[in-house]
C-alpha cells in the first residue's frame, strides 16, 4: 500500500513539473509593427513566424495600425518574415525566443523595384 502511494505521489509530481514546463514554453510572443520607408503603417501585411526546429509556421496579418502579434509560442529559434504586395519582403532569421519573452520585432519594408517588360511583335 505504501509503495502505491509513493508511486502515485511521484507520478503527480512529475505531471506537475512537466505541465509547468509546457506552460512556460508556450507563454512567449512575438509582435511589432510593419511600416514603409517613410514610416507609414502597412495594414494587411502578412507575417509568417516559423519555428526553425520544428518547421511549424504561424501566419498573421497586421491590423489597421500596422501592428501584429503572435502569442503562445514555445521557446526556440524562429524566422520571422514580413511581406506585402508592392513591397520587398523582409526576413529576420535566428530570432531567439526565451520563456515568458515578449519580443518586439518591427519591420520597415521598401517599395519593390519595378521592372517593365516591353514585348514587340513583328508581323
Show the helix and strand layout:
Blueprint: H1 2-25, E1 28-36, E2 46-51, E3 57-61, E4 67-73, E5 76-83, E6 90-97, E7 102-104, E8 107-109
Parallel strand pairs: 1-7, 1-8
Antiparallel strand pairs: 1-4, 2-3, 2-5, 5-6
Please, could you describe this protein's structure?
The chain starts with a helix and ends in a 14-residue tail after the last strand. It has one helix at residues 2-25; strands spanning 28-36, 46-51, 57-61, 67-73, 76-83, 90-97, 102-104, 107-109. It is α/β, with parallel strands linked by helices.
Count of DSSP helices?
1
Strand composition percent: 35-45%
Q: What is the C-alpha radius of gyration, as a whole number of Å?
A: 23 Å
Chain-averaged pLDDT: 83
Helicity level, as a percent range?
10-25%
Query: Strand count, sense and closure of the main sheet?
Result: 4 strands, mixed
Structural class comes to alpha/beta
Span from first to last CA?
Answer: 97 Å
State the total count of DSSP E strands: 8
Shape: globular
The gist of it:
20% of the residues lie in helices and 40% in strands. It has 123 residues and is α/β, with parallel strands linked by helices.
Give short descriptive properties of this protein.
single chain; 123 residues; alpha/beta; four-stranded mixed β-sheet; four-stranded antiparallel β-sheet; 1 helix; 8 strands; globular
Amino acid at each position: 500500500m505504501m509503495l502505491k502511494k509513493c508511486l502515485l505521489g511521484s507520478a503527480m509530481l512529475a505531471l506537475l513539473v512537466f505541465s509547468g514546463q509546457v506552460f512556460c514554453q508556450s507563454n512567449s510572443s512575438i509582435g511589432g509593427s510593419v511600416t514603409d520607408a517613410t514610416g507609414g503603417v502597412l495594414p494587411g501585411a502578412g507575417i509568417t513566424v516559423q519555428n526553425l526546429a520544428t518547421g511549424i509556421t504561424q501566419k498573421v496579418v497586421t491590423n489597421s495600425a500596422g501592428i501584429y502579434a503572435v502569442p503562445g509560442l514555445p521557446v526556440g529559434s524562429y524566422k520571422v518574415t514580413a511581406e506585402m504586395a508592392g513591397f520587398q519582403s523582409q526576413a529576420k532569421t535566428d530570432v531567439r525566443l526565451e520563456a515568458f519573452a515578449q519580443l518586439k520585432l518591427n519591420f520597415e519594408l521598401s517599395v519593390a523595384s519595378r521592372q517593365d517588360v516591353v514585348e514587340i511583335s513583328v508581323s
